[in-house]
């Protein structure tokens, strides 16, 4: 298969984050928020992108959830919890 351009995906996430900062939300106490779903073809691609984004997440502005069907149900359910 084709190689996923991880640095391009990272650049797009950064651009979206810059265009829609969390600070711009008027009332953070409601369910307002931002989320980006990135679908990738397999676990290795998911793991590799997760590593790229974790390294870039030095300000801890993002909550990252790698998901794959081979992961346990409890791990997959974390995405439904409200982030801190």
Which characteristics define this entry?
3 helices; 84 residues; 39% helix; mainly alpha; globular; 0% strand
Span between N and C termini? 37 Å
How many strands, which pairing sense, and closed or not: the largest β-sheet?
Answer: none
Q: Kindly state the mean pLDDT as a whole number?
A: 83
Helix percentage: 25-40%
- Poorly predicted runs of 5 or more residues: none
Helix and strand succession? Answer: HHH
Task: State which percent range the strand residues make up.
Answer: under 5%
Q: How many beta strands in the DSSP annotation?
A: 0
Give the overall shape, derived from the CA principal axes.
globular
> Would you tell me the structural class of the helices and strands?
mainly alpha
Rg estimate, integer Å: 14 Å
State the helix count. 3
Report on this structure.
- It is a single chain.
- This protein has 84 residues and is mainly alpha-helical.
- Helix content is 39%, strand content 0%.
- The chain contains 3 helices and no strands.
- The protein has helices spanning 6-19, 43-56, 73-77.
- Helix 1 packs across helix 2.
- The longest helix is centred in the first third of the chain and has 14 residues, at 6-19.
- The radius of gyration is 14 Å and the shape is globular.
- The termini are far apart.
């Amino acid at each position: 298969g084709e190689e996923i351009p991880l640095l391009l995906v990272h650049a797009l996430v950064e651009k979206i984050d810059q265009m829609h900062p969390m600070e711009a939300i008027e009332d953070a106490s409601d369910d307002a928020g931002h989320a980006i779903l990135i679908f990738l073809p397999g676990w290795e691609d998911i793991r590799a992108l997760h590593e790229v984004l974790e390294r870039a997440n030095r300000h801890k502005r993002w909550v990252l959830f790698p998901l794959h069907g081979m992961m346990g149900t409890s791990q997959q359910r974390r995405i439904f919890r409200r982030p801190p």
